[in-house]
């Protein structure tokens, strides 16, 4: 995990080989790649345009995991190296992106106390507003506040959060990457072998991506039309509850 985030492909190679020689399960090793990638994006991604790269590589690493989870092949361990190398190279590229004038780097830690002041029943509504405002600092802080009040090992502990983030992702139009990313995050949360608490970074990553990635458009015409004809007629207020999405 730490070696991938550090961006050293040779150190990552040696670590994977050592884990395999020690008898670690290949799937467990591969699953760490997505956790590391999500962690790096939340901690160090500073430019909205930089998300055009990791939104692809996170999905590609998820595809490798899907293949390993569902098909048996004598060459599977090679895919772990390919996935880890790719993500490690992407991390090095992201870290090289310059800061953009006028763009404030996300700082969810600075919004922690603000988020903690909300009652639990208001957190997801505030999360939707933060994503609509394209404010990753608020969005990630709210996800952390929500997760901190719900035992990660409890049954359905993250269901309402998943519904809310999927609802927010569905508002955007003209960019299938947003929906593909949503599928990748949900699948990794459900099937990744990391422990439940460690997988919470996936939701921070999802909220960070939705609120920081430079989208082709912020218009929600399709979403608004759906609510006009099939919803309650007020798309602006839709989905603000914890479990009504």
Describe this structure in words.
The radius of gyration is 18 Å and the shape is globular. It is built from 12 helices and no strands. It folds into 2 domains: 2-96, no CATH class; 108-237, no CATH class. Helix 3 (26-44) packs across helix 11 (201-212) and helix 4 runs antiparallel to helix 5. The relative contact order is 0.14. Residues 236-245 have low confidence and may be disordered. It is mainly α.
Q: How is the main sheet built?
A: none
Gyration radius, in Å: 18 Å
Number of strands: 0
Helix content: 55-70%
Overall average pLDDT: 92
Structure classification: mainly alpha
* SS field, number of helical segments: 12
Concise account of the structure shown:
The chain contains twelve helices and no strands.
Keywords for this entry:
245 residues, 12 helices, disordered C terminus
SSE inventory with pairings:
Blueprint: H1 2-6, H2 9-21, H3 26-44, H4 54-70, H5 76-96, H6 112-116, H7 120-132, H8 136-148, H9 159-169, H10 176-191, H11 201-212, H12 221-230
Helix pairs in contact: 2-5, 3-4, 3-5, 3-11, 4-5, 4-10, 7-8, 7-9, 7-11, 8-11, 9-10, 9-11, 10-11
């Amino acid at each position: 995990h730490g070696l991938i985030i550090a961006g050293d492909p040779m150190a990552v190679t040696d670590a994977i080989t050592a884990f395999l020689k020690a008898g670690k399960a290949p799937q467990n090793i591969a699953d760490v790649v997505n956790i590391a990638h999500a962690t790096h994006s939340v901690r160090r991604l500073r430019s909205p345009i930089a998300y055009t790269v990791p939104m692809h590589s996170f999905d590609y690493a998820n595809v490798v995991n899907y293949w390993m989870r569902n098909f048996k092949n004598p060459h599977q361990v090679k895919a772990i190296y390919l996935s880890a190398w790719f993500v490690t190279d992407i991390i090095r590229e992201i870290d090289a992106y310059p800061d953009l004038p006028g763009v404030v780097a996300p700082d969810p830690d600075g919004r922690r106390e603000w988020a903690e002041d909300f009652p639990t029943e208001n957190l997801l509504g505030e999360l939707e507003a933060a994503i609509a405002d394209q404010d990753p600092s608020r969005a990630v802080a709210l996800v952390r506040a929500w997760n901190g009040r719900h035992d990660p090992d409890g049954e359905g502990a993250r269901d309402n959060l998943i519904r809310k983030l999927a609802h927010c992702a569905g508002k955007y139009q003209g960019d299938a990457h947003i929906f593909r990313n949503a599928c990748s995050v949900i699948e990794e949360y459900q099937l990744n072998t990391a422990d439940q608490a460690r997988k919470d970074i996936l939701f921070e990553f999802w909220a960070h991506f939705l609120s920081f990635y430079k989208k082709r458009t912020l218009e929600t015409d399709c979403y608004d039309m759906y609510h006009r004809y099939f919803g309650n007629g007020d798309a602006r207020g839709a989905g603000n509850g914890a479990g009504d999405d």
